[in-house]
Write a structure and sequence with these properties.
By secondary structure, the chain is of the alpha+beta class. It contains four helices and eight strands. It is 26% helix and 34% strand. Strands 1, 2, 3, 4, 5, 6, 7 and 8 form an eight-stranded mixed beta sheet that branches. This is Nudix hydrolase domain-containing protein.
Length: 155
């Protein structure tokens, strides 16, 4: 049986005190934080699928709260496994920038509910957020293969 993921991942960045931090959302089913991701629907672009998913999972308005890069930072494809147990992954990574006052209050409310956190590149590599909860191992492996996260200063 073949499995596949065709979609996009959003790297939502904010400037931390000494390094970039990335928004990670809590996923009950995975019991881990993950970066916003979207399965691409038929007739939908990779970018549009991600914008839809970020708006739905965070409550942010794509016209007022965030800006998604017009082109992906990276396009990654891989096929793993045997023909009867094949996994196909086609993913595009987009950089997302936050702006606006309502954006901050919406994200603070989610953070207070323990539904999101901000993680550094080092925390992603180590697989654990500041609160001790895990970061999705599948996404971490994909980020490692794609070499998408820039090392932090002093790393």
């Amino acid at each position: 049986m073949s499995k596949q993921f065709i979609g996009s991942v959003g790297m939502i960045r904010r400037d931390g005190e000494e390094r970039d931090e990335w928004l990670a959302l809590w996923h009950d089913g995975r019991n881990a934080y993950h970066f916003p991701e979207a399965h691409k629907l038929e007739g939908e672009s990779f970018r549009d699928s991600l914008i839809r998913e970020i708006a739905w999972t965070t409550g942010l308005n794509p016209r007022k709260d965030f800006l998604t890069s017009s082109v992906p930072r990276l396009h990654h494809e891989e096929i793993n496994g045997s023909s009867e147990n094949e996994t196909v992954i086609v993913v595009e990574f987009f950089l997302v920038e936050l702006f606006g006052k309502t954006c901050r209050s919406t994200l603070l409310a989610l953070e207070d509910q323990k539904k999101l956190t901000w993680v550094t590149s080092l925390q992603v590599k180590q697989g654990q957020a500041t609160d001790g909860r895990s970061i999705c191992s599948q996404q971490r492996e994909l980020l490692r293969k794609a070499d998408i996260l820039v090392p932090e200063r002093g790393e």
